[in-house]
Amino acid sequence: MDKMNVSKHISGKFNDELESVRNKVLSMGGLVEKQLRDALIAIETSDQELAEHVLRSDHKINAMEVQIDEACVQIIAKRQPAASDLRLVIAILKTIADLERIGDEGERIAKVALESFNNDQQEFLVSLENLGQQVLSMLHRVLDAFARMDLDAAYEVHQQDAQADRQYEALTRQLMTYMMEDPRGIPKVMNVLWSARSLERIGDRCQNIAEYIIFFVKGKDVRHVSPESMEQTVRGRTS
Amino acid sequence: MDKMNVSKHISGKFNDELESVRNKVLSMGGLVEKQLRDALIAIETSDQELAEHVLRSDHKINAMEVQIDEACVQIIAKRQPAASDLRLVIAILKTIADLERIGDEGERIAKVALESFNNDQQEFLVSLENLGQQVLSMLHRVLDAFARMDLDAAYEVHQQDAQADRQYEALTRQLMTYMMEDPRGIPKVMNVLWSARSLERIGDRCQNIAEYIIFFVKGKDVRHVSPESMEQTVRGRTS
């Protein structure tokens, strides 16, 4: 039951169309993940060229979103999917909206690499990178869960966000202390703070995608429900 | 052509269902608008009780989103809408996702009213309120445009966002200067800065909703297109 066989859920003549859209989502996810990874490498290695490459590539993600969105609307109009097929199309529509915004956040993060930092400031850049790695791992795992429509993996990513939130809060405190100690550094530190916020938001969006996977597999909307109710949905038998 | 007659676009037996969902979106929009307005009043009048009321009411918005979302999926499954009917359902699905997140931002803004500020700090609270009023007007106007599926009004809101962005940038500079001058005030000022950011995001989300209206009326996805191409779509005849 753990790893749902997606093809089992796709029936009828539009199997190929649905598979093609699903593959496009995976390509889009791969690109978004690459953008975030490159943004973090650019910060770590002070690679301004790589940061600019990230900034120049966002339009590709936008174009993919529009293309997949259109394909989904076409499928609904032409194929009139029902039950789990319809849930898949809806889950895809929502997932690509989150992926597109993760791409936008990646752009904001890349901008930090365009700044230069002194030795003292390197310290909180390390904390930023740690948060970045945590969130990158969430993104990688949720895309993997999406590829296999793996309920358990999606639930694990959902749980992982609490840890990212704690890291984000610790970093925020660290940055505020730094600003109070050296007010001249504020504008530069603010950019780090915005990036940290962007990373925290990416974590939230990975959580959203995990919820769409659970919605597809279980047919139940688990947004805004209590942790207990969420666990019950995930652990319960498929209805 | 200015004010599209929505009922003209809704044909067949599921007219009532579609109208009912549209009305629910308007109720949800009304509640989201009230939350933002209350959050701003709470800041202006230092009304902590009102701020807490805003924080306690967010769950209603979440519940409405889930309910409308379900109704839309039901309509697609049962009624198999096509053409402009399908575009309406898709536009609704996307609009409620943005409305729900505007509600979340409203919560963050309300939290500022739980703080107390000294006389010096009142100054930037006024700037925050000005930005708040600007964004509240965008939200009001885009909901109004949604109610009438008014293409021109949607386009105007879309254009209005540039002004909100300028106000936001001026406020950010003001707040950073203040932090540099009085580092002890940083934690408190940071909260104002987060609220300002939330307001700026609400402006972006109003822009998104304007784009969904244009998508419904014109059948064309205008996200990520150039301003010229957007204007051409809006000014051109309905295809």
From TrEMBL, chains A, B:
Record keywords: Cytoplasm, Phosphate transport, Transport
Xref: Pfam families: PhoU (PF01895)
- Intracellular or extracellular location(s): Cytoplasm
In terms of domain of life, where is this protein from? Bacteria
Q: Name one GO biological process term.
A: negative regulation of phosphate metabolic process
Coiled coil regions in record: none
GO-annotated cellular components: cytoplasm
Stretches assigned to the PhoU domain:
26-112, 129-213
Classification via SUPFAM superfamilies: PhoU-like (SSF109755)
Family label: Belongs to the PhoU family.
Question: What does this protein's UniProt record list under function?
Answer: Plays a role in the regulation of phosphate uptake.
NCBIfam families the record matches: phoU_full, PRK11115.1
Quaternary structure and interacting proteins, as annotated: Homodimer.
Q: What is this protein called?
A: Phosphate-specific transport system accessory protein PhoU
Q: Which organism is it from?
A: Pseudidiomarina planktonica
For this protein's source organism, the top of the classification is: Bacteria, Pseudomonadati, Pseudomonadota, Gammaproteobacteria, Alteromonadales
